[in-house]
Write a structure and sequence with these properties.
Elements (H helix, E strand, L loop, with lengths): L25 H13 L7 E4 L6 H8 L4 E6 L2 H13 L6 E5 L2 H4 L8 E4 L8 H6 L5 E6 L9 E9 L2 E8 L8
Parallel strand pairs: 1-2, 1-4, 2-3, 4-5
Antiparallel strand pairs: 5-7, 6-7
Length: about 180
Amino acid sequence: MRVVAGALGGRKLVCPEGEDTRPTSERVREAMFNSLFSLDAIDGARVLDLFAGSGALGIEALSRSAKHATFIEQDRAALAALRENVETLMIGSQCTVIAGDGLRHLESVGEYDLILLDPPYGFDGWDTLLSSIESGTVVIESDREVNPPFGWVVHRVKRYGGTVVTLATAGPRGEEEE
């Protein structure tokens, strides 16, 4: 697996062995980040890669001019791969790596401009997760279409084989009309 574009384009990333970490394909990452670029959501962004795995999504954002990325991952093998990728690419000054459950850390990690959500397929806590995010552009990667709760503006939904990518922005959370 490689970084698709930007300052780190073409650099190789390591990924843990086994089935527990499902890296986003280069084709999907390229399309995803091209869409984010058209929304002006990357340049100078503070990025949260909540279910980071090997860090490919957050690293791609950094490569394409994001300012800082915070990675949260709980799987030990994925965390080791993520740390190796950060060290090999010499991007440690632009990153914070947190070992732990993304959902538990979500409220304590601060505000972000771009939030990358790629939990394990089968994840069913989308409403709770998205309701806890108050601002920013969100990339949702899932095995099925995810409909954000009231207050979200959906920009794009695109299927790539078995992967569905949704780009949305947290909007004002007023009273829902009846």
